[in-house]
Amino acid sequence: SALVIAAVFDRDVNCRRAASAAFQENVGRQGTFPHGIDILTAADYFAVGNRVNCYLTISVYIAGFPEYTQPMIDHLVNMKINHWDSVIRELSTKALHNITPQAPEYMANVVLPRLLPLSVGSDLHTRHGAILACAEITHALCKLAQENNRPVTYYFSEKSLEGLKQIHQELSSRQLYRGLGGELMRPAVCTLIEKLSLSKMPFRGDPIIGGWQWLINDSLRHLTLVSSAARQHIKESAVSALAALCNEFYINERGEADPALQDELVTQYVSELQNSEEMIRCGFSRALGALPRFLLKGRLQQVLEGLKKVTVISPEDVSFAESRRDALIAIAKVCQTVGVKGDGSQQEYVCRENVGQIYATLLTGVTDYTTDSRGDVGGWVREAAMTSLMEVTLLLVQNEAELIHANICKQIMCWLAQQSAEKIDKFRAHAGSVFLTLLHFDHPPVPHIPHREELERIFPRWEKETLNWNAASEAFPRITQLLGLPAYQYHVLLGLSVSVGGLTETTLRYSAQSLFDYMKKIQSDPSALEGFCETLLKVFEDNLRNDRVSVPLLTMLDQMLANGCFDMFTEQENPAFPVKLFTLCKEEIKRSKDIRKLRSSIGVFCGLIQFQGDMREKVFFQLFLLLCHPFPIIRKTTASQVYEMLLTYSDVVDPAIVEQAMAILSDTNWEAELPVVRERRNCLCDLLKVPRPQLVAK
Q1: Rg of the chain in Å (alpha carbons)
Q2: Origin, by domain of life (predicted)?
Q3: For residue 110, what is the DSSP state?
């Protein structure tokens, strides 16, 4: 059995494989190992390579042979639940859960009494492993008793039941929930609470329930004080424990909650949502999302209002992206818990009265583009908002689809389309996946999806699983086709602007190429091109001085002008589009000190020179202003790009003076002192008959 134990339970993969090979050798040569061939088949060299598989699957199969059951259990209890590696401790306790049905009496009469004192012992690792082992074994024994139509306490002595209740009290009295040890103890005891609740232990009305509730609440409040690595684990185990505890011990025979308890719990949790600590908001948002239906009944509006406040960005909590994310996740969970009833009460169901408010809150999350030192933290909020929109929409579709209004569905699909055209692969992939899930959902179909037939042609059903949204080369050729659908044009163009004008090489290349392909296609259709240009100006206007969009948008416009995307207007006398574009660009860079923005605008101004009429003088005047910009890098860039512009569009200047103009541009040191530069610039103005810019007295 020592070789079998090493083959299945050793931490190191090489040792497991060596033990498996040695076992195979012995079986082949001696043939005296019980069930050797059967075990070898299950635990061969390759099978033991996966540690989780060893602990949770292979071990259960081998423990089914009586000769190995007890030695395997003893090894886990004596050597593995106190292991230094927490992953091994947790796997060992799950293995004990799975092996329990093979030896229930031994587990109940020998193992559990041995574990209970260890669970309140002095060694941290042993205590952690023993608490988790008690939780897993208890749950397995209770399940087994119920399957055999016996009382849940069938396998437990009074002493064992008392010992399980004592664990929390003992740890609490010795203050073992504090400090670094508390980071291990809190999730372990919360797991114990969850498993004892799921086991339907006869503790209803016992004072221990209050102690457990205190620990759950305290753990959620304690999230600020623990390391970021432990935070998620504590939050998840506390929320799981809360859901199980409520479902088992807070519901009466009529399926209702005690009104006083419900009032205290919900009011306390909602009030914690406005805590000044972000992590406490996170914890209690998720806790409200985990509450069962009988505790939300009559309190739904209070809960939704509380969660809505967490999602609102205010000056003092701009960086609280994680709490906004958790609140949006909780809103969808609450909706799924209470269910849908169109003409029901807004205190009990998702109904006509509150569905608009729920959607408004979720749609606000999709517009969160907050950034801080961690990067695009708003991305977490957008991702949660997209998932929650999908969950709530599918819930409504399957129950009362008439509650989904056409304008809501249009907003959802347009925002998803915009996110599917954006630059960060992970969020683009998530948006694309949600977009296709809603488009292809069939039981019944989602109503009011704009341009459904065209979308199903662009995204065929059979491609739903195979289309790789992460790959820019696959995503952008598809998503740019939505530019031809009026309902989606604005949002897709807004998303594309950020990608085409972005900094990531592959995203930039494929998004730009897809956009230029689309533009080529509509060159022969004046109404389509004019519609596109109007949308483009609207995107620019709506995002004026919003640097997240306007800076990459200028870069994109520069590329589009250089690629001849607007050639149709070059033959017209005084076309409106370039004039409006010029005005917006001028407004965008007014008083700006952003070098990237200023450099992008120079390219746009140079590109606008190709249009006829009064535009040219205005463009030259603007460029000559930039030739005397306070930043030397801007003066130098402007001179270089104007030089290239005169080479490219040779017809915009009288051929007799073009050489002279280019000589001034190339021979001048544009990084010299401003008075020197200004003199050379004024020579250019006189040469090209453009009014000299005048110095304004400050």
Answers
A1: 34
A2: Eukaryota
A3: I
Can you name the residues that pair with 375 across neighbouring β-strands? 372
- Per-residue CA distances from 658 to 165, 246, 636, 655, 692 (Å): 92, 83, 19, 5, 18
Whether the Cβ atoms of residue 134 and residue 112 lie closer than 8 Å to each other: yes
In this predicted structure, what is the pLDDT of residue 549? Answer: 96
The three-point CA angle 675-677-678 to 5° equals: 65
Sign of CA dihedral 679, 682, 688, 689: negative
pLDDT of 408: 96
Q: Which two tokens stand for residue 84?
A: 């230094």
* Phi, psi for residue 454 in degrees, rounded to 5: -65, -40
CA distances from 428 to 202, 415, 434, 676 (A): 49, 12, 10, 50
What ranges in 448-546 are assigned the alpha helix state H? Answer: 452-458, 472-479, 486-500, 505-522, 526-542
The predicted pLDDT at position 628 comes to 93
Angle at 439 between CA 437 and CA 443, to 5 degrees: 75
pLDDT of residue 366: 96
3-class SS of residue 257: strand
What is the pLDDT at residue 697? 64
* Per-block mean pLDDT, blocks of 10 residues, the chain (698 long): 93 95 89 87 91 96 95 96 96 97 96 96 94 97 95 93 93 85 91 96 92 94 84 94 95 88 95 94 96 95 97 92 97 97 94 96 96 93 98 97 96 97 94 96 94 95 89 94 96 96 90 95 93 97 95 96 90 86 96 93 94 86 93 96 91 88 94 93 92 78
What do you get for the CA distance between the two ends of the chain, in Å? 91
Count other C-beta atoms under 10 Å from residue 357's C-beta: 14
DSSP labels for 35-94? THHHHHHHS-TTGGG-HHHIIIIIHHHHHTSHHHHHHHHHHIIIIITT-SSHHHHHHHHH
What six digits make up the tokens of 57?
């699957």
Torsion angles phi and psi, residue 423, rounded to 5: -85, -25
User: Can you give the pLDDT at residue 651?
Assistant: 84
pLDDT at 676: 92
State how far the Cα of 321 lies from the Cα of 452, in Å rounded to an integer.
Answer: 34
**Cα separation, 39 vs 24, whole angstroms:** 9
Would you give the DSSP letter of residue 108?
I
| Whether 431 contacts 420, CB under 8 Å | yes
pTM score: 0.91
Taking the C-alpha atoms of residue 140 and residue 96, their distance in angstroms, rounded to an integer, is 9
Nearest 10 degrees: Cα torsion 86, 91, 96, 99: -170
Contacts of 53-61 spanning 24+ positions with Cβ under 8 A: 54/7, 54/8, 54/9, 54/16, 55/8, 55/9, 55/91, 55/92, 55/94, 55/95, 56/91, 56/94, 56/95, 56/98, 58/8, 59/8, 59/9, 59/95, 59/98, 59/99, 60/95, 60/98, 60/99, 60/102
Torsion of CA 419, 420, 425, 431, to 10 degrees: 80
At residue 18, the pLDDT reads: 95
**What angle separates helix 486-500 from helix 526-542, to the nearest 10 degrees?**
60
Phi and psi dihedrals of 175, rounded to 5?
A: 55, 40
User: Quick one: DSSP state of residue 483?
Assistant: G
Rounded Cα–Cα distance for residues 491 and 497 (Å)? 10
